[in-house]
Design goal:
The protein has 342 residues and is mainly beta. The protein has three helices and 18 strands.
Length: 342
Amino acid sequence: MRAILFIPVMTALLFPCRRAFAASAGNSAGQILKLGGGARHAAVGDAGTAFSGDSSVIFWNPAGLGFAGRCSVTTSRSFLFQSVNYSAVSAACPAGRFGSFAAGWQLLDYGKIPSLDNTGAVDGSFSPSDTVFSGSWGGEIARNISFGVTTKRLFVKIDNRGAAYAADAGVLARFSVISVGAAVRNAARKIKINETAESLPRILKIGAAADLNDFSLIMDAGSSKDASWLSGGVEYSFLQDGADSPVRLRAGYSTRMKTGGYNITAGLGIRDRSWAMDYALVPYGDLGLTHQFSLAFAFGRSVRAEERGTPKKTGPFRNKPGAQSDEFILLPGDSLPKALKP
């Protein structure tokens, strides 16, 4: 009887509307494998395939690790509906010409669910959960192009327990202000729970992102056994009173969240050279609004392009167009040639 109660809770997490509930119930186990990490992505409709920022890329497209310039740690916490909560932690660090390595941990806690006896009476409760441990690598395979892989170990606890291995692979290309990526997530054999073999949610995604001065545009297209969908959004950055930490406002939309018309997501963030805080507001229809938070830190010496085996003169690794601060050389005025003096 416990598994019967668990299926609606698991399905409602990813497919909140009545129509999706009827079409998707029981299609796959390991629902945690459909989730990403980081409130920034949640605020733009869960689009992140073309992202190459902090360590959270391992939950979207591990090829983003190929452009990592510094070590980073990202933590996120999602307060979903009822007693369901989701947590994710990731850490990544570049290793020069050997690319970048990362590790991740995810926990989807469904809270306490009542269990019933054969007469339908409540005889206690149980606490199902999904847990994933992952390891990732990403590196440049050609100028402007990176490749990455992730191996994952999934643990599912309902009444009994099950475990399975899964893998992700992706590619990412960066051209000046535009990035294009593709990833296959959760390639795996079936997981056996209570002597029943269940499929895992294999997902194919392609995405693009463009950094246009103060605006960033993000778009993803995804497909799985459950459905196909589009998601994306816009991010606007502005400075408060000339401060160095820009505030970023975000809005997104996803056709996957069929919540009676409430498919719009929103959020904001504050980012600095070494840290970032992000928040996202995501609707789940009749289940209400959910809140997601994340905190990221970057540290260590920045790895330059030539240390990753790429000529320094190439420009596609810039976060923004135009000359960067480390490309200027300041000289005293009296040392300039006469022809160059003002």
